């Protein structure tokens, strides 16, 4: 009898759709991929990326053995694992001997399993004893995380199951486009609308999500905070505040009430460009609903005021008494596959497992006990992602870097500068499944297992911990990241690192015990038995926690906290030289830096190149038509893309996707100005000039700055 297909999950986004893989045809046949009809998030749905994920398995460009470079400028050549790892160890030891412990850096990814993210953080703090570790999730969720932590005392993207969306009467979606980024999730929005729910979308573009909404507000990029304060102003003046909830369950409202007094709708219209009548209509719709949700995503958060913007919408939700009310609340929609779990277990520069803080004495003592080290030997918090990358190769900066599953040359802001700093390193080692643009620059490349070849847990956008199961064997010379971490630690003379996912997970649960993200009651078996387990789950004897805040908030006073926030404008306003706004985002058939999806023929055919979207009025004013080449230029760099006109975008704004490397990499243009709390770069807005490109694509390395 043929073995049953393996139940596992899509390798891409935070929805982590349940799929089955049937690899019974043997290594010569591509596994058959089907959606799991009964998995509670996707309920049988998949998007184009999920349906074609098996194309990544057995891909001709797959890295199948280690590569090394004999000297800078020479080509990468095949090597044994022993040679590759000895080079890594020698380079790390040399950098630390010459420049101190923090001269070796680690850069992780939001797609790593919980086990890998956890062990990578431990590797940095215990095997290398460096403070220099951060990850690409800093560029994704950090602003929402900072805001929810300070208001609710916890950061779990959705504090309720995804299916609750179908039961809400009114939903305000801010800077989120699930119709393209999470298509199977739209079944819940559609179900809600079918029973009469009203949806409001805030986005400078008329996305497919906005096109389905009852009300579409199109603010100037970077002005969402003023919009939220304006809505709260209306709600306060019209007596629509839930005063009992505010009195019983929150703290700090009076300062917010005072702060929003100045956000009169006509003033907010001048700041945001959203007509006053629409602001009023949106505020009333939201306030008068029995069950209402406010959902934010990267459009609101990837700004230098991203934390305060998320906070402004939290203030609005709290004033309406939404968090903890049935089928209501504030939530933020996670992007990367393990964006949630990846930010809980210690690959962030200031963090220890269980969402503990590295500068907390008790947290250090607890985790040091689990790791069998002296708390005093754990490093203090290090630099955030962009700060670490921009200081590479400088005095006091990282001199040798290990990048695991992250393509920073494409995904970091001000990408030309980041590429230049990578060139200033003494040594770069990259672990990946394909030769990404970042791996191409490495001195050593380590090939690692991919999703269907490994087991491990992921935590989806709901905070549901799920199990990725191995369905087929990896190529012979490919090793798992856990195995490589354990081997490198041993070569560095440090014990206590396992290559076995289940063993690492068990240790992770002990390290997380008592922390905000407490996984102690979760096991592989419990996940299998229940189609996932929601954290916090402190004991095998207790139920898990699908819904948060029903009774109180995990803050010291058990109340949610308001914080007054002010609109302060974007760091770069349009001027004579750069007269428009540039905003960036995703398209349906690509994922993140495109390392995987650009290699899937069916996806690449649908979206083969980056396309700049601009309003016909703007296009006409610069002499560009759909299909023409358009030059986009900012203070940091320029690119040439094919133009597509679309009357659904604001006439002062250009949109470009961020999934491509090389000369089409829009992150060469983006602004690295950081949020003061989350250290999130200002990906979503900068000033740009737009012109018809009669000349060729700029050469590799061309830059203004
Ligand atoms: Fe995969 Fe996300 Fe698409 Fe689901 S929505 S199939 S998890 S990419």
TrEMBL record:
GO terms for biological process: respiratory electron transport chain. Keywords: 4Fe-4S, Iron, Iron-sulfur, Metal-binding. Residues 3-61 form the 4Fe-4S Mo/W bis-MGD-type domain. The keyword Plastid does not apply. It comes from Mycobacterium saskatchewanense. This is Nitrite reductase. GO terms for cellular component: membrane. Residues 335-354 are annotated as: Disordered. GO terms for molecular function: 4 iron, 4 sulfur cluster binding; metal ion binding; molybdopterin cofactor binding; NADH dehydrogenase activity. It comes from the Bacteria. SUPFAM superfamilies: ADC-like (SSF50692), Formate dehydrogenase/DMSO reductase, domains 1-3 (SSF53706). Pfam families: Molybdop_Fe4S4, Molybdopterin, Molydop_binding. The keyword Iron applies. PANTHER family: NADH-QUINONE OXIDOREDUCTASE SUBUNIT G, RESPIRATORY NITRATE REDUCTASE.
